[in-house]
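Justification of computing resources. Each target in the renewal requires a structure prediction run like the one illustrated here; the chain below, 563 residues long, is used simply to show the kind of job we budget for.
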Amino acid sequence: MTTELSGTGVTPRAGVGRVVWYRGTTDLGDPPDPTTVDPEEELAAFESAQEAAHEELERERERTRDRLGEDEAEIFDAHRAFLDDPEITGGIEAAIENGLPAPHAIRRAFEDPIARFENLEGSMAERADDLRDVRDRLLRLVTDGDRTDLGDLPNGSILVAERLTPSDTAQLDPDVLAGFATIFGGRTSHAAIFARSLGIPAVVGVGDELAQVGDGRELLVDGEDGTVVIDPDDDARSRISDAEAAVVAEHVSTADGREIEVAANVGTLAELDAAAEQGADGIGLFRTEFLFLDRDAPPDEQEQYEAYTAALTAFPGERVVVRTLDVGGDKPIPYLDAPAEENPFLGVRGIRRSLASDSDLFDTQLRALLRAAGDDEDADGSLAVMFPLVVTVEELDAALSRVESVAEELAAEGIDYAIPELGVMIETPGSVFAAEALAQRVSFLSIGTNDLTQYVMAASRENDRTADLHDPLYPAVLRAIRRTVTAAHDGDAWVGMCGEMAGDPDLTELLVGLGLDELSMSAITIPDVKANVGNIDTEAARERAERVLDAETRETVVELLSA
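Resulting structure tokens:
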């Protein structure tokens, strides 16, 4: 008999398979008599486990960055911070001194911090899972426990667990796993974010009823509707084919005929095929940092040229927007001179480095880009290049001057080239206020809402204490977006968005109403966003956007969007 359970869908996909239960918590039992515990030995065991945990986290960070991108990999930076948190390490050391073995001391020291996060609301509550992840890693290492290889599950499995941590989810293989479901968890948890990035059907927060589903039972996970179906019948299975048919390859327009470009954000060449499979209209953000990572020297001109032409070839006739190297104190590369800065997000990064310490790298990258733009035989798409973290007109003028100089050098050498569309990332209040002048100098502006929200709200993306402020639905952020759109159009430039906000299907109507011409996002959300675009009446969307822009609080914005 078919039974349906409800939870929170986190990925717009559905899958069906056989249940494999995962229970990852280490059972320690009761602690021994304190008189039998050697504090020095237990302290050494903890310190050894802590060092091993740091090494594991570094490896997992690199692996996650390669698979999913830098933003997702930053989750493990938070884990390393928890690993060294004085409150936690001090609690472990004190418990050991009082006669607890290292494993029991670790368990006790994490209890209060986890409970405090669980009592908070929104995304802050999800950090309890990050603490559990760090705790369980330490427990496994200090007890010499074996780690379950979640990357080696039977083909077509549905993974079921009480909860999944980021480290668990990062192991999953989307080519093997049909989906996962958890008893606990929310849409903003890092496990959910990883599931969306990997394109794995997932439903979280299903509740205790899920615990009654045994190993080997057939289960359907519908990440679109947020349902889990036990022993699905033919009607339930039809959801799978419906989800697969949802991919729209062609460009889409609103109900009244306004075309909206729906493109993909990619961080590696391996992501190009997935973007094309999801119906991307091109690439709205090609992060070039991956070319410079995990190596002892920067890529040469030819290697970069081949990477850019590969992206163009993957999307013939479509626009591919390449962002020039965006590194700095918050994204260190070992072979580059990047001294530690007290606040790297306000330091030397993006175009600031390209025009100063990394000027030679910048010229090499521009040479490769101009060559790719001019190679009509191998590059069938339309190349565009945008500069990150431009704040002043002077910075943009300097970057444009470098493009002209590189073009002159290539011409003098007899090398084919073309100057691509040029654009600017809008990521700071300074660039918003300068947008009118910037738009007059370039072909397009692209709004990076992740950084723009951070700078407008003075809330670091990496600071858990200000996580609730890092939300683009605050009126100040929305007004910054509208100002940018107006400035772009007044300057005859098109305007796109490549931050996480662009990939939220619930916000598609708002963004169309605000006047965006292009939306770029993780490939997995492209079909849903395209479907929503087709249902939008542009004038109605504009009217709703105007009401939202008049709101004074985020709460009012949410109410208006939900109406």
